[in-house]
Amino acid sequence: MYNWHKDFTSIVTCFKISSKFEFTNLKCTALDRKFADFEYCHLRSVNRTYKYMSVKVNLFKTPITKIKVNGALFKRFSGYRPFMYNVTIDACRFLNNTESNPVAGYLYNFFNKYSNMNHTCPYDHDLQVEKLPIEFVNYQTTKVLPFPEGDYLLELHWYAYDINRAVVKVYGTLS
Length: 175
Hints:
Pfam families: DUF1091. This is MD-2-related lipid-recognition domain-containing protein. InterPro entries: DUF1091. By secondary structure, the protein is of the alpha+beta class. The chain has a single domain (25-174), classed as Ganglioside M2 Activator Protein, Chain: A. It contains four helices and eight strands, in the order αβββββααβαββ. The protein has helices at residues 4-14, 91-96, 102-108, 134-144, and strands spanning 21-30, 36-45, 51-59, 67-76, 80-90, 127-133, 150-160, 163-174. It is globular, with a radius of gyration of 19 Å. Residues 4-17 have low confidence and may be disordered.
């Protein structure tokens, strides 16, 4: 008698199931151009394997000593709907102890190695995330904290002195 189950199991174990994250869009909006404005905000595809994100915001009223960030994650279900996280943190306090808030720490780990925002307040210089590679984001979303497949939006509102100054929206697909 033919044992199809044994052959099927052998075939399945030969294939590795893996997920892959891709950037699909990036939008940066300055809400108070007298306070700050984006010099650039783009996704680049150097080749099929090396893709990255870069953002630079010029600050016009430095030093900045009071910053809050609201980060919200959305997943597309007939439009983007809230998914898992929506946190607001005092960025100056958080940067004194990045382990104080695990959710904020997870979101911060997406860009801190590629940014000059990795120190405590005050900020007296322009802020940037430079060449954040898709491979790193893919690792964060598939290995560190695996996400289900789908289309996602990470929306970050940046507040200085309790006034919403900028919005950054990062869109991506996990397949």
